[in-house]
Write a sequence for this structure.
């Protein structure tokens, strides 16, 4: 029984996949049904933009650069990337702002939530992990541009 499930793309390293296995065994679901149920969904704060990822986001990380900080109004932004082809919208699509010569950032035109960043001509798009419906399913693995992180973000300055 476990063997075919190991072929499933959601079956990698996380402990909750064991729960998926128990769940699917109890309810006799096929692997395809499990994959369908496990697709990644997300959206902006107001719900005007709803998106769906058909692939697991990869290279999840924190970016502390000034562009991300100003764009999100936050000291750090968690990102992960997916092929553009795997990203679909339920209805409206994000508005785009050209934040640098070759890069655009997508946001909700109604509520302003920061949703994505994409380089011109790239087939990869970065999405903001915090807009996933279940951000706990993707764990950032590294930090980039830490030199732009304000000193008050550092643990040693918060734990005195
Ligand atoms: Zn919105
Ligand atoms: Zn950045």
């Amino acid at each position: 029984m476990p063997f075919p499930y190991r072929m499933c793309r959601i079956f990698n390293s996380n402990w909750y996949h064991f729960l998926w296995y128990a769940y699917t065994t109890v309810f006799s679901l096929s692997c395809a049904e499990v994959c369908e149920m496990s697709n990644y969904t997300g959206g902006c704060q107001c719900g005007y933009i709803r998106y769906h990822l058909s692939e697991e986001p990869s290279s999840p990380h924190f970016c502390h650069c000034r562009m991300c900080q100003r764009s999100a109004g936050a000291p750090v932004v968690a990102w992960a990337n997916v092929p553009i082809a795997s990203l679909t919208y339920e209805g409206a699509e994000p508005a785009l702002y050209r934040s640098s010569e070759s890069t655009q950032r997508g946001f909700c035109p109604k509520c302003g939530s920061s949703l994505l960043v994409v380089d011109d001509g790239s087939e990869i798009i970065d999405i903001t992990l915090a807009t996933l419906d279940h951000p706990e399913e993707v764990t950032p693995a590294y930090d980039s541009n830490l030199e732009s992180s304000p000193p008050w973000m550092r643990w040693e300055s918060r734990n005195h």
Notes: Residues 1-13 have pLDDT under 50 and may be disordered. Residues 9-148 form a domain with the Metal Binding Protein, Guanine Nucleotide Exchange Factor; Chain A fold (CATH 2.170.150.70). Residues 44-46, 48-49, 108, 110-111, 113 surround zinc ion (ligand 1) (CB under 6 Å). The chain has one domain: 9-148.
